């Protein structure tokens, strides 16, 4: 009973944390644009803030720079279970044009990634769609699968 | 060295910061006495990647230095190349470049003020501005075909032409958002809550702004009457540009300067849309070997590019100097002295509108 209630609530309300690991701000301001009343991310029960300890989903933007190689794992460890990572933008997927610089792409080399959103930058609708698509899959029957 | 009570680290992930940066605040009780800034979280080595590459590839790297003021980087880089190779661009291309640049500045200033109001937890006002910003991004998409990374300028002109119907639509959007922005600016100017959080906070005198040296809206908030657009031939010939400034020098003056500039931008966009000349938009041009330094007013202040090219049009050497470097210096050295509490340090940080992606490249 409580497990069912937990699953129901988890799917409908979760916290999102934005993690910039060396992006050009383009993807970050598109995530910020999701907050706008036009897209209205909060009507789906998604709350965006910057604290990994309270988050359920982390949005990672940018090619992983030298300083972030260790820290990205630390921050991923801080996020409580159940958790999912969404990699946003071409940089997070492949390094894009920064692949030859001081970066270590892709993000999936460092932490497990659930969804990848390509684009430079992707549109807010696509980001919103990715967040909504990951929620039912990751948080469905989490207790029964042996977590939490 | 003076002793301090406690060192409070902010970041690299902090709810008030858009970007990763670590600031260590040195405090005596509740009063902030100093700060250390720890950088390097977004360093991608763009200048290194650009070297030994043809300019056609480097231009895409230049505009990805920063996603917020991408058009400024693009325009400054292209104008530096044009300075090297003595290229004259057609009249219509000049107008289109200015139009794209002013739309970009409009959205960047709205975003800067919005981030400040999010930092002081005034979410309603921030959402109002965010809604207006979406309309400006629509204009950018109509003109250049993309919302954030525009890729609009090339050596010899601009990439796409526009039609009278698009210009009419941009004018309609401008007419729609101007009364809204005037109303918000009025609210920000007279709102008692915002006054309490920002008036007299982070004061920097004109002398200090010149010493630091702060640039852009931050310097103009302290009474420095300088803007690189005054020196730009297109702005002087076409728009008869006059800079705006305020004398108070606190966090409030800095965001009000941005509001004043927003209305200047709207005036310029309206003039450019109404008086767009006809003709070609791009001329055949070749990048020669040579070197040049060019400075342009980005939304946050002076943006300088030094470029040296070889005879094949490849980039031999490039250095970018972005406006956040001197502004962050002014923040640590002068503004934090007038921070009564730790919460105000975050407000001051948001008021200088830092762009860490620009700073570290």
Describe the protein's topology:
The complex is a heterodimer of chains A (148) and B (361).
Chain A: H1 2-12, E1 14-20, H2 26-33, E2 46-49, E3 57-61, H3 68-78, E4 84-88, H4 90-94, E5 115-117, H5 124-139
Parallel strand pairs in A: 1-2, 1-3, 3-4, 4-5
Chain B: E1 6-10, E2 22-28, E3 31-38, H1 46-50, H2 55-63, H3 70-85, H4 91-119, H5 123-144, E4 153-154, E5 157-158, H6 164-190, H7 192-198, H8 206-211, H9 216-220, H10 233-239, H11 251-274, E6 290-298, E7 301-309, E8 315-321, H12 324-333, H13 342-351, H14 356-360
Antiparallel strand pairs in B: 1-2, 2-3, 4-5, 6-7, 7-8
Helix pairs in contact in B: 2-3, 3-4, 4-5, 4-11, 4-13, 5-6, 6-11
What does this entry show, briefly?
By secondary structure, chain A is of the alpha/beta class.
Describe this structure in words.
The complex is a heterodimer of chains A (148) and B (361). By secondary structure, chain A is α/β, with parallel strands linked by helices. Chain A has one domain: Rossmann fold. In chain A, 34% of the residues lie in helices and 16% in strands. Chain A is built from five helices and five strands. In chain A, strands 2-1-3-4-5 form a five-stranded parallel beta sheet. The radius of gyration of chain A is 15 Å and the shape is globular. Chain B has one domain: Cytochrome-c3 Hydrogenase, chain B (Orthogonal Bundle). Chain B has 14 helices and eight strands. In chain B, the strands form three sheets. Chain B has a three-stranded antiparallel beta sheet, with no helix packed on it. In chain B, strands 6-7-8 form a three-stranded antiparallel beta sheet. A two-stranded antiparallel sheet of chain B has the order 4-5. Chain B starts with 5 loop residues before the first strand and ends with a helix. The model of chain B has no long low-confidence stretch (mean pLDDT 85). Classes of the chains: A alpha/beta (148), B alpha+beta (361). The interface between A and B is large, with 40 and 37 residues.
């Amino acid at each position: 009973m409580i497990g069912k209630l937990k699953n129901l609530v988890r799917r409908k309300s979760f916290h999102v944390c934005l993690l910039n690991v060396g992006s050009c701000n383009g993807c970050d301001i598109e995530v910020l644009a999701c907050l706008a009343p036009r897209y209205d991310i909060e009507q789906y029960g998604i709350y965006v803030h910057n604290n990994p300890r309270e988050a359920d989903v982390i949005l990672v933007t940018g090619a992983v720079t030298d300083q972030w190689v260790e820290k990205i794992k630390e921050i991923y460890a801080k996020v409580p279970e159940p958790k999912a990572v969404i990699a946003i933008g071409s940089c997070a997927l492949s390094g894009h044009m920064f692949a030859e610089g001081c970066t270590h792409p892709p993000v999936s080399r460092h932490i497990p990634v659930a969804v990848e959103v390509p684009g430079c930058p992707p549109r807010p609708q696509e980001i919103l769609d990715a967040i909504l698509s990951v929620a039912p899959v990751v948080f469905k029957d989490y207790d029964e699968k042996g977590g939490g | 060295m003076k002793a301090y009570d406690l060192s409070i680290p902010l970041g690299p992930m902090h709810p008030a910061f858009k970007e990763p940066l670590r600031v260590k605040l040195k405090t005596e009780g509740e009063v902030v006495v100093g700060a250390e800034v720890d950088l390097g979280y977004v360093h991608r080595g763009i200048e290194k990647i650009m070297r030994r590459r043809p300019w056609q590839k480097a231009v895409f790297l230049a505009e990805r230095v920063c996603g917020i003021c991408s058009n400024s980087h693009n325009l400054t880089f292209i104008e530096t190349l044009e300075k090297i190779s003595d290229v004259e661009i057609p009249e219509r291309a000049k107008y289109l470049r200015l139009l794209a640049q002013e739309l970009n500045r409009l959205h960047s200033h709205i975003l800067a003020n919005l981030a400040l109001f999010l930092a002081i937890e005034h979410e309603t006002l921030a959402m109002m501005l965010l809604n207006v910003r979406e309309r400006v991004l629509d204009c950018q998409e109509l003109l250049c075909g993309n919302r954030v990374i525009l890729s609009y300028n090339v050596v010899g002109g601009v990439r796409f032409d526009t039609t009278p119907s698009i210009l009419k639509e941009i004018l309609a959007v401008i007419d729609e958002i101007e009364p809204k922005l005037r109303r918000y600016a009025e609210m920000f100017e007279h709102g008692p809550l915002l006054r309490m959080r920002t008036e007299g906070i982070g004061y920097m005198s004109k002398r200090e702004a010149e010493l630091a040296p702060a640039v852009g809206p931050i310097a103009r908030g302290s009474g420095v009457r300088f803007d690189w657009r005054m020196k730009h031939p297109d702005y002087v010939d076409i728009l008869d540009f006059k800079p705006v400034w305020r004398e108070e020098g606190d966090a409030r003056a800095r965001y009000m300067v941005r509001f004043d500039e927003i209305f200047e931008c709207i005036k310029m966009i309206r003039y450019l849309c109404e008086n767009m000349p006809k003709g070609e938009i791009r001329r055949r041009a070749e990048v020669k070997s040579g070197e040049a330094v060019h400075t342009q007013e980005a939304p946050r202040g002076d943006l300088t590019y030094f470029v040296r090219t070889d005879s094949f049009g490849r980039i031999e050497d490039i250095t970018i100097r972005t406006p956040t470097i001197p502004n962050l210096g002014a923040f640590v050295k002068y503004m934090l002295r007038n921070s009564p509490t730790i919460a105000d340090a975050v407000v001051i940080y948001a008021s200088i509108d830092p762009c860490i992606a620009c700073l570290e490249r």
